[in-house]
Amino acid sequence: MKKLFVAMVLAGVILLQPISKAAPKEDASAMPKVGDLAPDFKMQYFDGHDLKEVSLGDYRGKKQVVLAFYVFAFTGG
Amino acid sequence: MKNFQQNLKKLEATDTQVLGVSMDSPFANHAFAESIGVSFPLLSDWGGDATRKYGVYVDKYKAARRVNFLIGKDGHILEEQLDSAAIDPSKIVDACERPKMRQ
Asked: Which of B31, B50, B92 sits opposite A66 (nearest CB)?
């Protein structure tokens, strides 16, 4: 009986492993791929005088957009 | 961001708007833009909503990865550059200058 219990626990541990290993991939799979519709956004920037609001929709049908994410201001270029 | 500034004329000539994005405040980003001579907007994703929507948020750093997206006029993504490959934007500049890009 004890042996059966140990075997069941071991089987459970082995079966659960792929699930816990798959979890960290979540971030990467959430990134839209080439060909996907880019998620809309609304963000602000300061032009030296005022806060201006920008959304992706502002450019639809008018301009292409390069969206360049960087880590922090004042760290490299 | 400096590398995009160096290519800004080429990009503007192909109807392309460059927007930098980080999770800094708008005021920090403005000071950063002035200090490195960047003339395009550096948007503030305060709170990280857009960074998460684009799947580039890194929990470890509580900030974005370095990633460039080229988005077409129809709103679809045309090119992507990730991490160290995103420092030199040539791939995106070339894609913009390629004639008859998918609209």
From this structure: B92
What pLDDT digit, counting tens, does each position of B19-39 carry? 999 999 999 999 999 999 999
Q: Given this structure, which CATH class describes domain B2-97? A: alpha beta
In this structure, is residue A30 part of a structural domain? yes
| Closest chain B residue by Cα to residue A40 | B50
Count of structural domains, chain A: 1
Region A29-53: mean pLDDT is: 95
Cα three-residue angle A17-A18-A19, rounded to 5 degrees: 90
For chain B, the structural domain boundaries read 2-97
pTM: 0.82
Could you count the other beta carbons within 10 Å of the beta carbon of residue A29?
9
